[in-house]
Amino acid sequence: MPKRISYMEMYTTSMFSTVLQLITDIYLEFKYRLYWYFSPGIDNLTLWYVFFIYPAVNIIFLNFYPRLATLSKQILYILGWSAFALAYEWIAVQTEVFQYNGWKLWYSMLIYPLLYLLLLFNWLIIKTLKNKEDQ
């Protein structure tokens, strides 16, 4: 995979996405019991997803983001990744890796594009701060 983002960008965006994931899970999984991974409560397998799989996916998303392309291509890229995330979530539900308890797949359909936009906005902030620091 060609490296298009710096190690600092990888690290900081991974930390941002991990913290966002953990905060989301604290509320939606533990407070409201809308979903859980594997079984209700804390387990070691969930940590594998939160700390390794999701950050890796986010790095790949950012690494190949077509930032110099037209707006329509950027929108299609975000929608394509949102469709990938929905398919991944659907498979996770079918295999009982992820279990719903009031959550609906269509909620995720609305949320994923916003999450990818938030990840891009965070990356833009990181790049801006890095450029200011380098001057």
Describe this structure in words.
The structure is a single chain. This protein is mainly alpha-helical and 135 residues long. It has one domain. It is 73% helix and 4% strand. It is built from four helices and two strands. It has helices at residues 7-31, 44-63, 71-94, 105-134, and strands at residues 35-37, 98-100. A two-stranded antiparallel ribbon has the order 1-2. α3 crosses α4 (105-134). The mean pLDDT is 93.
Average pLDDT: 93
Helical run tally: 4
When the domains are counted, the total is 1
Number of strands: 2
Oligomeric form of this entry?
single chain
Shape: globular
Strand order of the largest sheet: 1-2
Helix content: over 70%
Keywords:
two-stranded antiparallel ribbon, about 75% helix, single chain, 4 helices, mainly alpha, about 140 residues
Helix-strand blueprint:
Blueprint: H1 7-31, E1 35-37, H2 44-63, H3 71-94, E2 98-100, H4 105-134
Antiparallel strand pairs: 1-2
Helix pairs in contact: 1-2, 1-4, 3-4
Summarize the structure.
This protein is mainly alpha-helical. Helices cover 73% and strands 4% of the residues. The protein has one domain (7-134).
